[in-house]
Amino acid sequence: MGNNVFRRAGLIIACAISITLMGPIASAKVSAPPAKKARPSDAIRFPVTKYKLPNGLTVLISEDHHSPLVSYQQWFRVGSSHEKVGHTGLAHFFEHMMFEGTKKYPSKRFNRLMEINGADFDAFTTQDYTGFYETLPSDQVKFAIKFESDRMHNLIINPKVIKKVREVVEEERRMRYENSVMGTLWVMFNSTLYKTSPYHWPVIGYMKDLNAMKLSEFKNWYKTYYIPNNAVVVVVGDVNTAHVKKLIAKYYGPIPARPLPPFHPTPEAPQEAPRTATVKRNVHAVSMMIGWPGVKAGDHDQYALDMLADIMADGPSSRLYRALVYDTHLATWVSMESDENLLAGDIAITVAWNPGANIRRGIAIIKRQIAMLKTRLVTKDEMKKVRNAELLGYIRGLQTDSSRAQALAYNEIIFHNYQHLFTDLDQMSAVTRKDIQNAAIKYLVPSKMNTVEVVPEHRKGARP
To answer: What are the φ and ψ backbone dihedral angles of 383, each rounded to 5 degrees?
Structure first.
């Protein structure tokens, strides 16, 4: 992430006061208190009102009157990690189910109302949470509140709707995974890296599981997790906080809380040896992911790992991009990411090799670059560049109502504290070159390496 790092100038006023003593008047100068050193987080702070309804619904409201828009987001603490073996895909399935409507707002009426109001709306599912959002004119915030509160507890669930959504999910699975090289790689990578954790299966789940589920299982999922005490509502934009609070109390207040089941997912067993996986597809060249177990969200090492990944493969001047794309022409592109989730994380390098490339040579280059991270500190110029890029991206990423609402929702969902958002930049700025070296030594371990690849159908064997 990155952005315009803008600083706010503080105005310090020093006062001189007169003190009457026994005799002539003497003046004493009182020094102003030392100026507090500005922190990077000072550039991104904005006012937020947080409260809870009696039924457990967490609400965050942030007024911003720069434009007549509002971002309304409703997230639930449920994702694919809440599923069980043989019952996968429910979290993502309900992302689609929620758009099938209620008696009051059937899907066609909802879509028509959204179009009339010029709204942008969608949803997403991850391993840890499911989110729904609308960006619409601020004078329509009441509509968003009425609609979202209604589908929280009045969703239509019947065999006809389930059949329709199954067909949509099947098509999405074919498009995003079965017919996509990158999608195939990600599914392979997660199933190779994670063996015991629920992160093992894809968020979209397995169709055989969804096809085998009964109507009662779909209804039970909705009843269990789509409840106010498992949700966070975020409202950011041109609104009046007191007015929004009244509306939320009116429409969400009557929805009852229900007990949540205990969440004790199976932890991932430590990896003891390298793992590989290969699948053949109708492609012209090899695509590959090389990755290692990383850290959970909130782990201090995540900041060093994020910066390490950027130094290695963020943009044309990064180490792996220069080595694999510019200097040797072995690859068409390369990237490196550090992902931190609620239960676990990973660090992964993704490479699209050129047809006919000497992949053995390319892997050797990657290993040499990793070895250099462990034996030599990254340069001061690299550190300066990556720190500036991270700061710049972070701040730019908070410039719209929607992006601020998403950041607030994420931090409240994962950490139960939206203010975690305002500490990220400070921790990122504190990362040193030694921290990055230590992270490479600690996490980029040969015995924990996972290599997965999609290869052309005509190719013999696995990796060279």
So the answer is: -65, -45
